[in-house]
Write a structure and sequence with these properties.
single chain, alpha/beta, five-stranded mixed sheet, 32% strand, globular
């Protein structure tokens, strides 16, 4: 599992994940993913490279979304493979973390969530 983070603008970070978000994959990205979540207000997560999502991967997403929420922050997921999206929706993750189809949608929504609003 790989993670690449990019600052998109004022308090918005893009985290692109690639690989299997299983026990080994989650362990490989847990520290950098959590660090990125701590340093931003809105975390936009690109899941287009995630080919498999296990319960430990769901826990990784939820734990960091909860940490962001405690600081009045937000997480937005996008680019899900159909099977990954099915898992996220069937487990109710979409009730806790926004899921959108494209990067453009995610970035647009992120712009409305940063303090002061405006484009990212």
């Amino acid at each position: 599992m790989k993670i690449e983070t990019t600052e998109l603008g004022k308090q918005v970070t893009l985290a692109a994940l690639a690989g299997r978000l299983d026990i080994a994959g989650a362990g490989a990205v847990e520290a950098p993913f959590a660090a990125a979540a701590r340093e931003t207000h809105v975390m936009v997560v690109d899941l287009s490279g995630v080919t498999f999502l296990a319960s430990i991967g769901i826990r990784l997403l939820l734990a960091n979304a909860k940490a962001l929420t405690r600081r009045s922050g937000h997480m937005i997921l996008f680019g899900c493979d159909p099977q990954v999206e099915k898992v996220l929706r069937s487990t109710g993750v979409d009730q806790l973390i926004a899921i959108v189809a494209t990067r453009e949608e995610a970035v647009g929504r992120a712009g409305t969530l940063v303090p002061g609003g405006g484009p990212v």
